[in-house]
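Changelog excerpt

This revision adds worked examples to the README so contributors can see how folded entries look when concatenated. The first example is reproduced verbatim below.
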Amino acid sequence: MTSYTREESVYPHFFFTSTRSSIMWFVVRVYVGWIWLEAGLEKIQNPAWVGDSSGAALTGFVQGALKKTAEFCAPAPAACHPDVQSWYAVFLENAILANPVLLSNLVAWGEVLVGVALILGFLVGISAFFGSFMNFNFMLAGSVSINPYLFVAGILLMLAWRTAGYWGLDRFILPMFGRRPHS
């Protein structure tokens, strides 16, 4: 007898709740975690992110993002599709630029922590949420790069939280909270 209900399709059950898909999620999780860890380690070793000049790199990133707003479309405003929306530009100016040192450290160390947690399979759903949240903010700031791919992978890891950490610490931690993956 299968462990899924009639309302649940075979495919979502396999991909998001069955431990049979856990090796696939292990590969996705470690890859995404490695990308985060590399990015974070690069930042914490850079004094413009964490150190004597802390906040300088974040300030430069935000100033670059502010140049991608609608007000820089003056020559042809009707045809302009800015990379950064005006509401997000207000947030960048008033919240991020007001606290660059604190937020620079939070981004750098947050990337390291998300990377380590995903690699170890520690609270994968929560770790993937924070990684996706950072990716979402990077994309809102006009930075594309690999962020859309990591964002989608993070969303999928959040959906597969019950099995994504099966080959990791979640295999031992989740049962403490009464959560067990399905077979």
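The second example, added in the same revision:
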Amino acid sequence: MSLPSRGEDGLPSARGAEVGRRIGVGLMHGLWKPRVLGAWKVPATGPVIFAVNHSHNIDGPMVMGVAPRPTHFLIKKEAFIGPLDPFLTGIGQVKVDRAAADRTAIGRALGVLEAGGVLGIFPEGTRGEGDFASLRAGLAYFAVRGGAPIVPVAVLGSSGRRGRLIKGLPPLRSRIDVVFGDPFDAGDGSGRRTRRALDEATERIQKQLTSHLENARRLTGR
């Protein structure tokens, strides 16, 4: 399968993200048993940000494969090595340098939203407990600047340790729940993008994401 290159405007390829979604569908359903709840809550059109908890490497591919719309994830540059570099670029993912203010990545991410696409973000910045306990301000910036609602996404069951056939992966054919929440706006309606406004937006986002995760755990029994 040939993958699209980056668009002439330098933005991540929307067609590539759709190809990535189709690859994800086959791969995730072939290796595990995804159970998707609340996908109907995702707006069918317009810019959207998926805020995904992150406890395992497959969380991003899992969301890409089960989401109702193609998704462009912000992914650390360290993942773009060898053949993965052209592959991830070809399926519309966005390389980001987490050690600095990566203006190129910021511009491409905002371009996704301006084009009415879906941007995927791990607001915790890196893999951890997956409980949204520590959020970075980047999510608030993209939501306020891009004028996009945030859809919280909880991936549950990806970090189980028992019965793994391959080290570093959840047990094959195990159930993984992906729960989409209600979209919400991060800003206060003023359009302000000051540091204080973004800090306040981050606090509102954290409360919403934590609440969604708690509800998702109750719903799935995880």
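Reviewer comment on example two: The chain has one domain: 14-220. The helical segments are 14-31, 59-66, 84-90, 103-114, 138-146, 195-220.
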